[in-house]
Amino acid sequence: MLRRQRLAGEWIEPVNEILRITEGHDELVAQEGDWKIEFIAREGGLDWLLAAIARSGAEIIAEGSRARLRLCANPHCGLFFYDNSRTRQRRWCSMAVCGNRSKVAAFARKHASARNSS
Ligand SMILES: [Zn+2]
What we know:
The protein is an alpha+beta fold. 43% of the residues lie in helices and 19% in strands. It contains three helices and four strands. Helix 1 crosses helix 2.
């Protein structure tokens, strides 16, 4: 999707297969003044977890090019994330992991070049 490629039917079928697991149901849930569709799991078993992940994936696929799908700015990471930030300029999969790593690296670079130039 990030490369704006057409999604082939054979890539979609495994998602649909998991969506057919009905270990719960969808409900409209109020969130920050908007209505969101949320998967409500049935008790017991863990298949609902997979179904909930497939549901999130399906929502992103259905959003198409409007989906705020991003690749983490850390070149060693490779994780995708959904940018639900207000500014829509989120860069990291996780501020706690890749965001901080980048800050620490930038800090180290800055100090190394300050030391070399003095
Ligand atoms: Zn990352």
